[in-house]
Every structure is written in C-alpha cells, then in structure tokens.
Specification:
The chain has about 240 residues and is mainly alpha-helical. The chain has one domain: Fido-like domain (Fic-like fold). About 65% of the residues lie in helices and about 0% in strands. It is built from eleven helices and no strands. The longest helix has 23 residues. It is globular and about 50 Å long. The two termini are about 25 Å apart.
C-alpha cells in the first residue's frame, strides 16, 4: 500500500525546497480545502468560495456567527499545528486541549479544551463513546500507545490514521472531536514531511463507516486505506508543482 506513497515522498524530498511562491500558494490552497471540507463534514453550510471570503475577513450574509467562527478558528488551529511541527514538539495532552480550545473559541468557551462531563452518542454510529469518568484514563492510554516503540515503527500514515481513529472513538470533548482528530492526523503526517491531507466531504459516508468499523471491530484497514488515498492525492498536488 505504501510503496507508491514512499516513492512519491522520496521524489518530493529530493526536489525540495520548492520555490517560495509555489509553497505559499500550495499552503493557501490546502488550508482553504482542509478548512472547507472539515467544517462541511460537521454540517457547516458555507461553500468553498464563501469559506475563502471568510478567511479573507469578509462576512457572508445569511450565515450564522458560529459558521464564520468555525472557519476562523480552524485557520488558527492549523497555524498552531504548523508551530508544533516547526518546533518539533512531542505530542501531549496539553497540545490536544489547546487545539480543541482553538476550535471552540467563541463558540462554546465553557467546554473549549475541557474533557466532557456527560455521555455523548455519535449520530449514525454503532459505537458508543466511553463514559465521562473513563476519558482521562483512555486519553492517557492513547498517549501511552503513541509513545510505544512498536507504534513509532509504524508508517506515519498508519500512525496518523490510528491516532485519529482512536481519539475520535474516545470522543473526549462534547463537540469538535472530528475537527480535532483531523488536525491530529495532519499533525502526525506533517511531522514526517508529508503535506497535509483533506478528508473530502463527498467521501463522508465511507469515512464514517470506516471509523465505526475501527471502533466496533478494532479493524483499521478500511480507514487507513482512505487516509492513504488522500495522502497520495496531496503528494500528487505537490509533485505537479515540480513538473
């Protein structure tokens, strides 16, 4: 599964650094598509062009304050992910809570960066997230798994996909778990020199089904394949800049 991805990544690395304006335009393109799609998956009704306008600081008529904040907050969260990558900081609970705090800033300040204190259910899923009193322990187990020597030997695509899947299965926050999990997935990929990926809203059903299978059957292959396909898409975009 990863032979082609590795070859493309090696070719990209061999041609780095890319020209400054190319890197800037690729970043802007992916930041827009990532923000639009991740919010659309969660029900935000802004179109991709409306999302672009909001990122430029313009208000879109007929759309809620929450929808505008979801765009601005996600941009800020991406910038925070980029800072973590630049500083080469190890993953921590503090970082995860900070990411979530940025996602819910001004939307639900009471629960921003705070583990949930009530039971939640995932719409359309068989999997039921753990009770609130188990969250801290399960998050510690997740970070423990992440630090294991065997986990570090996994391909970054597998490690990122599993980090996303396990995190969203715990569903530690009342809201914003999906966006946070996709930020964590890209954080892991970007740490290893991969471009960020976009889980596209049109693939939402397959994405949800693969996640539910991972949670109920501990079978991650379908989800890893979805992530790997998006990784290849992003690599192809970057490689098109070389040709």
């Amino acid at each position: 599964m990863f032979e082609q991805i590795n070859q493309k990544k090696d070719y990209l690395d061999a041609n780095r650094p890319l020209p400054n304006y190319t890197v800037k335009s690729l970043r802007e393109k992916l930041l827009l598509e990532w923000t639009y799609n991740t919010n659309a998956i969660e029900g935000n009704t802004l179109t991709i062009n409306e999302t672009k306008v909001v990122l430029e600081g313009i208000t879109v008529g007929g759309k809620t304050l929450r929808e505008h904040l979801e765009v601005i907050n996600h941009r800020d969260a991406i910038q925070y992910v980029e800072e973590i990558v630049q500083k080469d900081e190890p993953l921590s609970e503090w970082q995860i809570k900070n990411l979530h705090r940025l996602i819910l800033k001004g939307i639900d300040d009471e629960y921003a960066g705070v583990y949930r204190d009530q039971q939640v259910f995932i719409s359309g899923a068989k999997h039921i997230p753990p009770a609130p009193f188990l969250i801290k322990e399960e998050m510690e187990q997740l970070l423990g798994w992440y630090e294991k020597a065997e986990t570090k030997k996994l391909h970054p695509v597998v490690r990122g996909a599993m980090l996303h899947a396990i995190f969203v299965g715990i569903h530690p926050f009342v809201d914003g778990n999906g966006r946070t999990s996709r930020l964590l997935l890209n954080l892991e990929l970007m740490k290893h020199g991969f471009p960020p990926i976009v889980i596209k809203v049109e693939n939402r059903i397959a994405y949800y089904e693969a996640l539910d299978k991972a949670h109920t059957e501990k079978e991650y292959d379908d989800f890893i394949k979805i992530v790997a396909s998006e990784v290849e898409d992003s690599l192809n975009l970057y490689l098109s800049a070389i040709k």
